[in-house]
Amino acid sequence: MTAQATVTTPCEPDLELSRRFLGGSDPPGRVILCSVTGSHYYGFPSPDSDIDLKGIYLAPTAMFLGLTRAPEGYDLVDTFEGVEFDLTLTEARQALDLLLRGNGNMLERIMSPYQLLSDSDELEPLRELALGSISKKFYRHYHGFFRGTCREHERTAKPRAKTLLYAYRVALTGIHLLKSGELEADLRKNAVEYGYHEALELADFKQEAGEKAIVSPEEDRLHRGNWARLGRDLELAHGSSELPEQANNTDACAQWLIELRLMAFERAEAELGFGPDDPPW
User: Fold this and answer.
1) Residue 66 is part of which domain span?
2) How does pLDDT run across 117-139, given as a tens digit for each residue?
3) For residue 82, with 0-12 CB atoms within 10 Å meaning exposed, 13-18 middle and 19 or more buried, which class applies?
4) Helix and strand counts by DSSP (H, E) for the chain
5) How many CB atoms lie within 10 A of CB 1?
6) What average pLDDT does this structure show over 222-247?
7) Which sign, positive or negative, has the C-alpha torsion 189, 43, 144, 125?
8) Using CA atoms, how far apart are residues 150 and 193, in angstroms rounded to an integer?
9) Residue 188: CB atoms within 10 Å
10) Which of 10, 123, 211, 265 is the most buried (most CB within 10 A)?
């Protein structure tokens, strides 16, 4: 890598291809949100990067009325039209519960700019609920994710650019969220704002060299040398954060989910031909 970082435009995810892949999947319910996350969202994709899709689905209401238990998640990893996809969907109740408990993965999938169902009736209400859920509880997610990424990097035999970038990304996303109350998952933007310009060069290197790019021992020491500062900055952001201790819109989330399930049940009744005066048996 050169001593001077250059700003490179990251690869954009193929949303149409992603929609075709999603359309061929078989989730146990209606998908109400699905977005591209991962390195495409975080600002350091490579041409050989897979496409990470994260979303939320609504299980059929009938599953909650009988003996069948609605599954809380759906996962699919497959190669489609020459591109590897990693799809993770979470049932709406579990998704909102995770959001209220400060799960950054859930916040990021809802707020990602790369939405596959951009005309979904549920997208804007979900985003309003997500913004209302932002609290200091998200510190635990980003702090734990940062420490876990550092440990993962230390365990690898050869130092990879990708895990170093994830350490920067997750810490800086948490710092920005706790300081501003706004989600910014793009490493390139946060690296400039918080003075970690060397991360830009690393992102450019990974973009050119590919997903499995290995850094030199000298580069590895340079970037690992920033871990202590990243950890301190994250702790300081938490300590000085003006965010509420916890989400204050739990009731709003519950009411929205109830209304969503009732509407789904009414649609199912209409499709089966039941009217308002028909007996329930």
Assistant:
1) 10-130+249-281
2) 999 999 999 999 999 999 999 99
3) exposed
4) 12, 4
5) 17
6) 98
7) positive
8) 22
9) 19
10) 10
